[in-house]
Design brief:
mainly alpha
Length: 207
């Protein structure tokens, strides 16, 4: 514990840079329920995944962690850095924070922003998609606006995740969706697939 405390204290005083990620990865392995460690992991990876011309990113599996740090330790040029690996790692961090601390709107929004920005390019897309689909309703209700604007996401894989989250949520909380659905139906840019999905749910859950 002293070793982990020392690392976290050092990291808290360090600027965001990839060179400390291997230290944070070690702490999360030794203390997988340490919220402070996961916060540093999530935000350092988020920062490393944001060059001026690249959108934010998130979390990673163990392999993504080692890949991210490898890029830095080898002093590779900026063009060779795998920013998606940092994004994958950040996503993992925010997902763990939600599991450890409960439905924090801030962590949920960070997770969604990264997931929708990077989509299937994330190395841990399937595991994060599963986490999102299994979110508690107390989490889902906080991110309904974020979900609604992703119904016509360019990636069919992402759309299917959004549809499944909403479908499961509607089983017990359909009334919370009635107003957003009305707005979407009144929006001329809504796709036929989206409107059919809304009509099907409305048919299954008459108010």
């Amino acid at each position: 514990e002293v070793y982990c405390d020392a690392i976290l204290s050092y990291v808290s005083r360090s600027p965001i840079r990839p060179g400390v990620l291997h230290l944070l990865a070690k702490v999360t392995e030794l203390q997988p329920k340490r919220v402070r460690a996961w916060k540093h992991w999530a935000y350092f990876n988020l920062g490393c995944a944001q060059p001026s011309d690249i959108p934010p990113t998130t979390s990673s599996s163990r392999s993504s962690r080692s890949h991210s740090t490898k890029n830095v330790n080898n002093n590779e040029d900026d063009d060779d850095v795998n920013y998606t690996a940092f994004a994958s790692a950040a996503v993992e961090g925010f997902s763990m924070l939600i599991k450890l601390t409960g439905p924090s709107l801030h962590f949920l929004c960070q997770l969604c922003a990264l997931f929708f920005s990077y989509g299937p390019t994330l190395s841990n897309f399937q595991s994060i998609a599963s986490d999102l689909k299994n979110l508690d309703s107390s989490c889902v209700i906080q991110i309904i606006p974020q979900l609604m604007v992703q119904f016509d996401h360019p990636s069919s894989d992402v759309r299917q995740v959004v549809y499944e989250i909403i479908r499961v949520f509607s089983l017990k909380h359909f009334q919370a969706l009635t107003m957003p659905f009305c707005l979407l139906k009144a929006t001329t840019s809504s796709s036929k697939a989206l409107l059919d999905f809304i009509d099907q749910l409305s048919h299954d859950h008459p108010v």
